Amino acid sequence: MGENDDSDIIEHHVEEEMEKKAARIRGLSSPLLDSLSPSEREGHSSTQSSHRLLAYSDALISIIATVMILPVAHTKVEDNEELRESVQLLLTTKIAVYLMTFLIVTVAWAAHIRLFQVIVHIDDCLALLNLACMMLITFLPYTFSLMATFPENVLGILLFCGCVMVIGVIQSVIVLYAFSRPFLLNEQIQISENLTYYKHHILKVIMRVPIMCFFASIFSFIFFQLSYVLLAIVIFLPYISQSLKWCRSKAIGQVEETPDSMLFYTYLPNEPLSKERVEAFSDGVYAIVATLLILDICEDNVPDPAVVQKQFGGSLVAALQAYGPEYLAYFGSFATVGLLWFVHHSLFLHVTKATRFMGLLNTFSLAFVGGLPLAYQLTHEFPRNSQNELEAIQISCVIVFFAGIFQLSIWVVALYNEQETLHPYVWYGGREHVFMLAKLALYPCVALGTFFLSCILSKFSTSIFHLMEITVPFAFLVLRLLVRIGVALLRFLFCPNRSDLTTIVDDEADETRVPFNAVVT
Amino acid sequence: MGENDDSDIIEHHVEEEMEKKAARIRGLSSPLLDSLSPSEREGHSSTQSSHRLLAYSDALISIIATVMILPVAHTKVEDNEELRESVQLLLTTKIAVYLMTFLIVTVAWAAHIRLFQVIVHIDDCLALLNLACMMLITFLPYTFSLMATFPENVLGILLFCGCVMVIGVIQSVIVLYAFSRPFLLNEQIQISENLTYYKHHILKVIMRVPIMCFFASIFSFIFFQLSYVLLAIVIFLPYISQSLKWCRSKAIGQVEETPDSMLFYTYLPNEPLSKERVEAFSDGVYAIVATLLILDICEDNVPDPAVVQKQFGGSLVAALQAYGPEYLAYFGSFATVGLLWFVHHSLFLHVTKATRFMGLLNTFSLAFVGGLPLAYQLTHEFPRNSQNELEAIQISCVIVFFAGIFQLSIWVVALYNEQETLHPYVWYGGREHVFMLAKLALYPCVALGTFFLSCILSKFSTSIFHLMEITVPFAFLVLRLLVRIGVALLRFLFCPNRSDLTTIVDDEADETRVPFNAVVT
């Protein structure tokens, strides 16, 4: 087998050479071909770059992660009840299901990233196995919501555990298949000597989850509460095992480390997470969430011609006016989600390496973003100036605040290790540092401000909220100017002796190069 | 202004140098940073790579393109009617709306691609303008469905035209903004001398559509049928203008060509279309379509505990059995969509350059893919062996057939210009040519076979259909083997004198290097 593989690799390189030559012959020095990375150029043989497979998987997983917000969004809040009660009812069941599903799916996604950081090339067989794996992942939310609706019924637990076990088995098959064809693996592992050690280590980590689920499904017949404990352990296993490791290292002194294996399949908070995939997954979630309301509008808010004729005397304008709040909610949530995406995009432009911990914070941020359309829809569903409306607006502010705060915390975490995770331009004292901070802080600050203003001036809460929705996009447009003015002001207040610098405020870029943090903090 | 820009560009390069140096200093020769293209490494300054903005736009547009399938999918087909009638009812309205929306949105998407092939870098301002543009594009399907539901009402036409006009204005602003900062533009345009000519040409092409819509909205007050004619012209404008150009060139001989401007904003069928974006858009559509049914399942098919207690005596299994057909439809449609994605993925691995015509064929293929979940859902909704069931199965086959055939035709079109559009390995006689053909032909052939079998053996149509669903994934797994056997057989039949070659059939890869097409055709 090994000999066969070697010949494959050699053949592979020969092919690549030939390919290049062929391209040169037919005069194809197009920028498109040149921009391809070597792994992409290998596309012609049966070995392929995994790039697009992963993009498709990310798209599927991001849809599935947000799917459980639909039952929440489509729950009709009765007008005669108080919002507080119905929200409490929602909170206890559907929102909990949504958040847990989001967490479970992102755990599966993180495992998928980890797997395909080891396996960097694919072939047809791996692509098909991955599709089978995806099919089961997309079924997870349903089994989980069955489990949540019928907590005492064995079937839900069995279905959920069954899915997780089959996913584990498929992933193990993928690992075994890839290790039997080492040219599919990450170069670092490919050239390392203890390939078998890696294989066993990875299989051990992968199989841990299905084995726990196996026990959980057995215990479900005897004492189902124990199953839930086991399943909770599965989800929080990375964090538990990591803190255990930390305790052990503290108790018995520094344990010997295996620096090579540390890169893959550890649960350290600074374990690298493919930045590209974090972006792709986030893009998927933002895109779904931004369009959630228009999906409903397109389906439900096209009036029936007969109804328009009968109830509105044929006046379409009058008929559509009834849907006014829905349009407002759509534009509001699209703009907010779009701008949060914009902040996320700006942040990740400056990130050079994503870590596990940053990925976790990103997940929390996305989970709140998923709730946004629902909250915005609520703000327009109640009569003007009612207690319900006020609370809906406050809930919206809280959600926007948390979505923004978790984005900000990604940056804070990145700053702790700025030399590895960030571009020099956003380091403390870097040229773009203050600007980036302002971008990230804008939404949390505005949301907090709106929240407190709506508490104090409860009568004008709707106007304040709409004003916020309208001004924030423009604030982002002129943010660079605002930051410059703010910085100049700060400098003027705290270092009046250096106020001569403010005269060159118009000069592009150079003035922000001096370390402001030293000034501000 | 120009001076300012020049200094910007120079500063930009200096920054990049500094960045590299800084990276070298902190010993960051990580593969991640090395794998970044130069444009991505510029991310630290206010100029950014447009990559992620486009990915997000593609995700949004792919969701929006498929949204109008939801009203089709959620139309309840009555059991007591014949499927034929209800399908005819659907065909005339909702399916037409879906197909037209898909076409309109993909036209908007193609315009977006064209725009961002000229503007290759973005800054914050462009990102925000693009988000505004996206918001209006996501609103297009709704306005169109209003227009389709109330064809004689002015409001629908006005809303639709209004959206298109605002999109046009925003795109013009984007062009003007980008041309005032030439470092944002494509290098070819950036270094060309007649920048102003390009600007005017592009603005002219962009403004054509909103101006037509402006006239359409004015005519809607006078004679609304004319508005529809104008709107139809807008959509088919590229094809009309192209055929007019062709006629002119035939009539008055070869017209002088502007080879530089030909690359951008022409409507020639071989105008390049960003391959990356075609892939991203297709991934989005496949992902949405694959999960369409699970979205419904997650929302509607979790039974109410009270109902289970009352109607099924607390037996969850019995309650879930009622949903059996839905699960089957989900797995069936996920597998079929997933495999069609797999074929698409394999095809585009071999494509080096996507053209406008290939993009159009891809759109047709995707439009059929969008109808798949609906068709699969229908197959399980009717009583066994009814006429309805038979027809639902035949409709599914037809949809799969067309989705596959259009994929195949992308390849055929690419083969006509294989030296520019394909990797040498899939050229006529290339090593992977036959294998690729088999991959692309598998679904159309199987769908055609199932269709005719279900006509002949109408009693066993369901079994035949399920058999197809189950065997096709395995057929893909062993396709390479099947192709090799088929080729060996063909060679044995037609060239018995060269049958000695078949003995080395097991030898990897080399035997397919000889030109089979010469043998087969």
TrEMBL record, chains A, B:
Q: Provide this UniProt record's keywords sorted from A to Z.
A: Ion channel, Ion transport, Membrane, Potassium, Potassium channel, Potassium transport, Transmembrane, Transmembrane helix, Transport
GO cellular component term of the entry, any: membrane
Q: Which domain of life is it from?
A: Eukaryota
User: What are the recorded GO MF terms, alphabetically?
Assistant: potassium channel activity; proton channel activity
Q: Indicate whether Transmembrane helix appears among the record's keywords.
A: yes
The answer, when asked if Transport is one of the entry's keywords, is yes
Which Pfam families is this protein grouped with? TMEM175
This enzyme catalyses: K(+)(in) = K(+)(out); H(+)(in) = H(+)(out)
**Bilayer topology annotation:** Multi-pass membrane protein
Intracellular or extracellular location(s): Membrane
Cited InterPro entries: TMEM175-like
The residue ranges crossing the membrane are: 53-75, 95-113, 125-144, 156-179, 209-240, 327-348, 360-380, 392-416, 437-460, 472-494
**Which coarse location class describes where this protein primarily resides?**
membrane
State the similarity comment: Belongs to the TMEM175 family.
Give the protein name, as stated in the record. Answer: Endosomal/lysosomal proton channel TMEM175
